[in-house]
DNA sequence: CTTCTTACA
DNA sequence: TGTAAGCA
């Protein structure tokens, strides 16, 4: 996956080597190293660098961007975790929607809440 | 020639 | 962030 030397990435992102290495220090990207200790970047690294430029333009600082990616991988893990329990994204949305309706007391136990299968899903979700 | 690390008028 | 130095 990682085959691009820093020189190529510089041209592709219009960033200086200094900046690219600095963002690595800040753990915004994690390029691999080849046998000669040279940094090798993937296309995903390039995309991320381009993203970082946009965030910087939007006024975010390094730590702010770090938090964005942190929360991002956080949600990513939750999604995977739910999938492991047999719940698709649409299942989760449906369950969450039913919860709101019932908490508000605006809707008596409906078909969905009395459905054994949905109760089972709720229990899994509240793990 | 390209990249790496370290350091700083 | 830029840039120079000394290696690899």
Automatic annotation (TrEMBL):
Biased composition (Low complexity): 117-127
Keywords for this protein: DNA-binding, Repressor, Transcription, Transcription regulation
UniProt xrefs under InterPro entries: DNA-bd_dom_put_sf (IPR009061), MerR-type_HTH_dom (IPR000551), MerR_fam (IPR047057)
Signal peptide positions on this chain: none
Positions of the UniProt region annotated as Disordered: 107-127
One matching Pfam family: MerR_1
Superkingdom per UniProt: Bacteria
Domain HTH merR-type: start-end pairs: 3-71
Keyword GTP-binding found: no
Tagged with keyword DNA-binding: yes
GO molecular function, one term: DNA-binding transcription factor activity
Protein name: HTH-type transcriptional regulator GlnR
Organism: Lentilactobacillus sunkii DSM 19904
Lineage, uppermost ranks: Bacteria, Bacillati, Bacillota, Bacilli, Lactobacillales
